[in-house]
C-alpha cells in the first residue's frame, strides 16, 4: 500500500507540527556533545557559477572527496555531463545518452571531475523513522527541527540520507550538450535535461540542507539539494519532487 502525499499548505505552525509528528527517533540523542569536524560541508563550484556565468568546467576532481574516509557527496559532472553521488566512499554516476535516455558509467579516478560538488565525511549516522508522509515542501522544515533536537546546527549546512519508500518522485539528469555556451537561465537549464518519474518506489536519497547556501548548492527558493540513487538500476539523478513515505528512515549525522 502506498501513502500519497497530503496537500500541504506551508505555514510556520503547520510545518513545525508536521516536522515533529512525522518522525520518531530510533535512538536517544546525547544531552551534551560537541559538534565534530566530521559533519562539516565543503563545496566546489556553485549553481550561480554554472547558471549565471556559464562555468561548466570541472572545478574539482571527484577524487578530492575521497581523500578522507566516509565521503558522502552529490553534484553535477564537468560539462554538465550527468549527475553523481558518493555514498560512504563509493561513486555512482549517470550520464545522458541518445534519444532522451541515460546510461550508468563507472568512476574513472583520473578523469572524472565536477562542475559542482557538495561533500561531507560522516562516519556515524543517527536513524529516525518516518511515521507520516513528508512532502518535499515540508522536508526542509522537518530537517531544521530535527537538527536542533539532535545538536546539529539548525541553519545547516549538514548532509542527510533517506532510505525507503517514496512516492511522486520526479527527477532529471543534466545534459550540458543542450545548452548554448556562456551564461544561461534557470529555464534553459530545466530544458537541458533527461527527465523521469516514479509513482512509488524504494530509493536512497542523498541530500544536503542549509538555510544560507542559496545560489551555492541550493536554488533560491529551497534549502535542500537532493539526488536519488536507484542502485539496482545504476540511476543517479537530481530530485525535482518527492514525498517521503511512512516506513522510510531519515539519517542525520551523529553528534558525538
Describe it.
- The chain is mostly beta strands and 256 residues long.
- The chain has a single domain, classed as 2-Layer Sandwich (60s Ribosomal Protein L30, Chain: A).
- 14% of the residues lie in helices and 41% in strands.
- The chain has 4 helices and 15 strands.
- The strands form 2 sheets. Strands 1, 9, 10, 11, 12, 13, 14 and 15 form an 8-stranded antiparallel sheet that branches.
- A hairpin with a 5-residue loop joins strand 4 and strand 5.
- Helix 1 crosses helix 3.
- The longest helix is centred in the middle third of the chain and has 14 residues.
- About 10% of the residues have low confidence.
Q: Radius of gyration in whole Å, from Cα?
A: 17 Å
- The CATH topology annotation reads as 60s Ribosomal Protein L30, Chain: A
**Beta-strand content bin:** 35-45%
Mean pLDDT, all residues? 88
Order of helices and strands: HEEHEEEEEEEEHEHEEEE
Q: What are the salient characteristics of this protein?
A:
seven-stranded antiparallel sheet; 60s Ribosomal Protein L30, Chain: A; 15 strands; 256 residues; single chain; mainly beta; 4 helices; 14% helix
Amino acid at each position: 500500500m502506498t501513502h500519497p502525499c497530503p496537500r500541504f499548505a506551508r505555514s510556520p505552525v503547520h510545518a513545525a507540527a508536521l516536522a515533529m509528528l512525522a518522525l520518531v527517533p530510533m535512538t536517544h540523542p546525547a544531552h551534551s556533545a560537541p559538534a565534530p569536524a566530521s559533519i562539516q560541508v565543503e563545496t566546489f563550484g556553485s549553481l550561480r557559477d554554472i547558471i549565471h556565468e556559464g562555468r561548466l568546467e570541472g572545478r574539482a576532481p571527484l577524487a578530492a572527496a575521497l581523500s578522507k574516509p566516509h565521503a558522502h557527496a552529490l553534484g553535477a559532472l564537468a560539462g554538465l555531463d550527468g549527475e553523481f553521488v558518493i555514498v560512504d566512499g563509493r561513486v555512482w554516476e549517470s550520464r545522458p545518452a541518445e534519444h532522451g535516455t541515460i546510461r550508468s558509467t563507472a568512476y574513472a579516478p583520473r578523469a572524472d571531475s565536477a562542475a559542482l560538488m557538495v561533500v561531507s565525511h560522516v562516519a556515524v549516522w543517527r536513524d529516525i523513522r518516518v511515521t507520516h508522509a513528508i512532502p518535499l515542501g515540508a522536508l526542509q522544515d522537518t530537517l531544521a527541527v530535527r537538527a536542533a533536537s539532535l545538536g546539529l546546527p539548525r541553519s545547516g549546512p549538514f548532509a542527510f540520507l533517506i532510505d525507503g519508500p517514496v512516492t511522486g518522485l520526479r527527477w532529471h539528469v543534466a545534459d550540458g550538450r543542450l545548452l548554448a555556451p556562456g551564461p544561461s537561465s534557470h529555464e534553459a537549464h530545466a530544458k537541458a535535461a533527461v527527465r523521469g518519474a516514479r509513482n512509488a518506489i524504494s530509493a536512497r536519497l542523498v541530500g544536503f540542507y542549509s538555510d544560507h547556501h542559496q545560489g551555492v548548492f541550493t536554488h533560491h527558493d529551497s534549502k535542500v539539494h537532493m539526488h536519488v540513487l536507484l542502485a539496482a538500476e545504476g540511476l543517479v539523478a537530481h530530485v525535482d519532487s518527492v514525498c517521503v513515505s511512512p516506513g522510510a528512515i531519515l539519517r542525520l549525522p551523529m553528534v558525538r
